[in-house]
Amino acid sequence: MTKPSIETRFERTLFGARWLMAPMYLGLVVSLAMLLVTFVKEIAYYAPKVLELTPDQTILAILTLIDLSLAANLLLIVLFSGYENFVSKFDIADHEDRPDWMGTVDFSGLKMKLIASIVAISGIHLLKVFMSLGKTEGNYAVSATTLQWMVIIHLTFVVSGVLLALMDWLSAKTDKH
């Protein structure tokens, strides 16, 4: 039994709609460039002051750069995996610089990488705030209530990550229908 032609055309239209995501992935490329500009701006700010910085200030500057780097890595993972999972496969299979994970990260793996990156970024930000407690200089002066909420939110990210991993593990253990 064949499908009616209207149903076939409708399904092809729905399938073709995946290309509406392409501009969003281009927007993520622009976001990656924005992170690069911010990273360079931070380097340009701290590099001339390196001999004047205290060890704590140096660590905070480095944590800021690591934070930006993790956010950029997260953007790349979402960009590559999302495009390959939802729009089209990259035609670069034989390129020597192709990351091993490309083409193998499914939606479940993408969720896990996303939550792990969010937890890492949140943890680094929280560490920066902890390191600046009691200091008057810097941009990280926070109230006890704000710090409490930051810890609660970070723990929420951690618990969410553990629950997502548990759900994926349970899903992998069950029989497929």
TrEMBL record:
Annotated membrane topology: Multi-pass membrane protein
Main location: membrane
Coiled coil ranges: none
Alphabetic keyword roster: Cell membrane, Membrane, Transmembrane, Transmembrane helix
Subcellular location: Cell membrane
TM region positions: 20-39, 59-80, 114-134, 146-167
InterPro entries hit by this protein: UPF0114, UPF0114_bac
GO cellular component, one term: plasma membrane
NCBIfam families: HI0507
Annotated family: Belongs to the UPF0114 family.
PANTHER family: UPF0114 PROTEIN YQHA
Protein name as it appears in the record: UPF0114 protein JI744_11555
Species of provenance: Fuscibacter oryzae
Lineage, highest ranks first: Bacteria, Pseudomonadati, Pseudomonadota, Alphaproteobacteria, Rhodobacterales
